[in-house]
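subagent[fold] <- orchestrator: predict structure for attached chain, return tokens only, no commentary.
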Amino acid sequence: MNQDKRECTDLQEIVSSYCRERSLRPDSFRTYAAVVSLFARDLDVSSVDHLSGLDTDALLKWKETVAERGSQATYNNYHRHLQALFRHCVKRGLIGRNPLEDIHQFPRANRRRAPCDAGEIAIILDHLAALADDSSRLQHAMIRTLYYTGMRRAQLCGLRWSDLDLQQGTILLRREHSKNAREWIIPLDERLAPDIAALRDRTMNLLRHRFPEHDQVFRIQLFDPRFAGSRLSANQVTNILRRLSRRTGTVVTPHRIRHLFATTLANRHST
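subagent[fold] -> orchestrator:
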């Protein structure tokens, strides 16, 4: 028996081992840990050794229970995370077979929305511009940043002022906020630069001209105490856009903005 099998049999230890090897972000670690905790509780499983005792009927019953308790999409999400962990266990020689190998996800309905268009973005931006308060101005700059860079919510929330070089016109996207744990530099679109410069000036004025080098760029709590916490979160980004969509009669989400950016970029390169 190898050392890993002797020392790493607890399922939560497996989560830690897997996430360390993959250099996954803390948010991903918490998701894996939560899924494994639920799986272990529902099926009375606490270690790798117990996985071999799970039969197909028990796993199928759990699949149905999760779908009834949440949704089929919820189960599919759990299934993806557990499949990755169990494959990791097989690869490390901790189990002989992936217990979910013969358990399939629910069929996915084709409900993907088309990307939003520039007109929908303009409606929301015009709405925010008309409000003309500091919170709305920050949200205006935030949406334009998503639109002109195509970055993800986590990358947007992870931006620090030190990641922006207004003189060189670059943005550093840090590995800890990237889905694939890569770090790279993207251009700061010249159409976006004035928004960022204006937001930086307002932030520095609020902080009595202290350069906020290590502060979050879109820390909306500085300007709007109605937002909970001390930093803008990914869920808050989604909720901001959801609220603006309701007010303006559009349907704009961070993912649809990212899809629009990718589509625009692809069309530009194909001409």
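orchestrator: received. Logging for downstream: Confidence is low (pLDDT under 50) at residues 1-8. The first helix runs from residue 3 to 7.
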